[in-house]
Amino acid sequence: MTPTAAWATLVVAGLFETGWAVGLAYTEGFTRLWPSLATAASMAVSVFLLSRALQVLPVGTGYAVWTGIGTVGTALLGLVLFDEPRTAARFACIGLIVAGIVGLKLVTPS
Fold first, then answer.
1. Which of 11, 16, 32, 60 has a CA between 20 and 30 Å from the CA of residue 108?
2. What is the domain partition of the chain in residue ranges?
3. Mean pLDDT along residues 14-36
């Protein structure tokens, strides 16, 4: 896998992480079958893709970017799907996470 493909795989893994994090809210404690199956499948795909990307990327950078994508995606979907508070401080913190993700990408030699 090329470094570019590894980064693309990592981004997709992060999107699946967002999917399972948000999916947890719909499982109602894993008592609802279809949301639970979709959440578990998203978890499996996310971790599998992360493992593939980490064959090329440094583990510290890859893991931090993966969790950052999941965190930002989950926070943004929380605003849309669950009507979570839309405050300047919340957006500033999301911006800091994005800045960290971009910074890690820029300083990683792959």
1. 16
2. 3-107
3. 97
Query: Are 101 and 69 a contacting pair, CB within 8 Å?
Result: yes
Rounded to a whole number of angstroms, the distance between the first and last alpha carbons of the chain is 12
User: Quick check: 68 pLDDT over 80?
Assistant: yes
Question: Whole-model pTM?
Answer: 0.91
What value does the mean pLDDT take over residues 52-67? Answer: 96
State the Cα–Cα distance between residues 17 and 72, nearest whole angstrom: 10
Residue the block writes with tokens 């008592």: 31
* Cβ(13)–Cβ(68) below 8 Å: no
What's the Cα-to-Cα distance from 32 to each of 23, 24, 46, 79, rounded to whole Å? 11, 10, 21, 23
